[in-house]
Amino acid sequence: MFSCTVESNKEINLTLNFRYGFNSDGHSAVQQRLQKQFLRRGHPNGILGINLGKNKTSDDAVADYVKGIQCFSGLADYLVINVSSPNTPGLRAMQGRRQLAQLIDKVSLTDSSFVLPLIQ
C-alpha cells in the first residue's frame, strides 16, 4: 500500500495488486469470491477494477470477454478489456483493426447498464 496526494491535498491510500499474466481460477470462481466478500464486508472502500483477458486455451476470445462482462459488470466499478498481454497465445491477433472492431461491437452489446468508454 502507498499514499499519494491529489489536487485537493487529501491523502489517498491505494492498494495495487500486480501479477504477471492473467493467472486466475476463472470467471465463476472469482465472481463467487467477490460476491462472498461483498456479503461479508460490503463493497470495498475505493474503486474496484477488473482486468479481463482472453483465456489462453480458448477457441473464442470474444466470448471470453463477453462472459467476463456478464460476470463482473454488476460487481466492478470499471472493467478493462485487455488485448495487450504478450504472454497469452493468440492475444496479439486481437489488436488488428477488424478484430478490435468486432470485439468492441460484441462487448458493447453485452450489458446496456454498463458504460463502455473507449480510450484511444
What would you say about this model in short?
The chain has helices spanning 27-41, 61-72, 97-108; strands at residues 2-5, 11-14, 49-52, 78-81.
Features:
globular, 4 strands, alpha+beta, single chain, 3 helices, disordered N terminus
The radius of gyration over CA amounts to: 16 Å
Average of pLDDT: 75
How many DSSP-defined strands? 4
Major pleated sheet: 2 strands, antiparallel
Distance between the termini: 29 Å
Helix content: 25-40%
- The SSE string, one letter per element, is EEHEHEH
Shape: globular
Instruction: Point out poorly predicted stretches.
Output: 1-9
With strands numbered from the N-terminus, the spatial order across the biggest sheet is 1-2
Helix count, DSSP H or I runs of 4 or more residues: 3
Estimate nothing, just give the exact number of structural domains: 1
* Proportion of residues in β-strands: 5-15%
Class per helix and strand makeup: alpha+beta
